[in-house]
Amino acid sequence: MLKNLFSLDGRIALVTGGSRGIGKMIAAGLLAQGAARVYITARKAGPCEETAKQLTAEYGGECIALPIDISTMAGIDRLAAEIKQREPKLDILVNNAGAAWGADFDEFPESGWDKVMNLNVKTPFFLTKALAAPLRAAASAERPAKVINIASIDGIFVNPLETYSYAASKSGLIHLTRRMAAKLIHDHIVVTAIAPGPFKSDMNKAARDHEDEVAKRVPAGRIGTDEDMAGTAIFLASRAGDYVVGNTIAVDGGIVYANPGIPGAGWDS
Ligand SMILES: NC(=O)c1ccc[n+]([C@@H]2O[C@H](COP(=O)([O-])OP(=O)(O)OC[C@H]3O[C@@H](n4cnc5c(N)ncnc54)[C@H](OP(=O)(O)O)[C@@H]3O)[C@@H](O)[C@H]2O)c1
Fold this sequence. Notes:
CATH topology: Rossmann fold
Keywords: NADP, Oxidoreductase
CATH superfamily: NAD(P)-binding Rossmann-like Domain
Number of helices: 9
Order of helices and strands: EHEHEHEHHEHEHHHE
Strand content: 5-15%
Bound molecules: NADP nicotinamide-adenine-dinucleotide phosphate
Family: Belongs to the short-chain dehydrogenases/reductases (SDR) family.
Protein name: SDR family oxidoreductase
Helix content: 40-55%
């Protein structure tokens, strides 16, 4: 029983935003642990198909590109229909696709609010709802299905960057994770979230282009790696994580929970 605790042998998974960055790290991790098929989505078809080809060549299972914009209800329904047409059961859904927007408080545009809230909060809810049938079909008490939402440490602590809708969206997603978990656990679908700290990506250009600078602000002294992200996703997706329900795991080298803070600022100092 303890031998294959982290195995994902034969699992069917969907990772939204799997063409690059954190989604790609997770898709690779699921395949490395034996997932049979991992579907990845993105808006741009070329990079999505390129990543699918690369991951299929690298691992035993198959990675399949479904390039669809999931920021609208029409896109969400199209993606769900594509999955349901191909798979009667879906073991793992990773709601990873996300967007950010930064602007001064006095200039912050409504478009930067709606774009971020729609993709980061509305889409995970309605995509999970649209895929409830294949998730329920895959789920049993012995082997629950998994929904893993990719939040952010910006939803836990206050990032000084003026990314108002992003912070609200990620905090909202963390609480939505708890609320959905409380409902779906009764169908043996386990909902959890990961709150990443800095990982190299197009979204986090600071971590990608100024790694040493960013690492100085991380208690662990480094930014996150593919292994850090894949490892947590594999844990939550596999038998090893079955009893973790509604929780959000910060994968951040200690930024949120192991940060000594500003000397002299505490009430008891
Ligand atoms: N990197 C970090 O340090 C960090 C830290 C905390 C949280 N996160 C979270 O991790 C997740 C992934 O971020 P990342 O850093 O890997 O960002 P990224 O490099 O920008 O990747 C985002 C992925 O989502 C896809 N995507 C974006 N909009 C989409 C849409 N409307 N429909 C379908 N796919 C879409 C992108 O492909 P297309 O552009 O082709 O659509 C891409 O595959 C996000 O939720 C982000 O908030 C990241």
